[in-house]
Amino acid sequence: MTSDEEKILKVVKEVVIKFIETGRISPSGFSKYFKEIYQSIKDTVKEGREKQPKQD
Questions:
Q1: Each residue of 9-23: pLDDT tens digit?
Q2: What is the C-alpha to C-alpha distance for residues 11 and 26, in angstroms, rounded to an integer?
Q3: Taking the domains of the chain in order of start, what are their residue ranges?
Q4: Is the pLDDT of residue 8 over 90?
């Protein structure tokens, strides 16, 4: 697992926990929403990396 993947997992976990705490999603929906949020954040990180100028 890469450093980016670990960071993404930590962020997703925090987001899902916050959604559960605020009642946005139920704990029973954790699996479904975790996957969706993970993919969304992963795609965002990937897009951000592609847009960064190359450093020499």
A1: 999 999 999 999 999
A2: 18
A3: 3-47
A4: yes
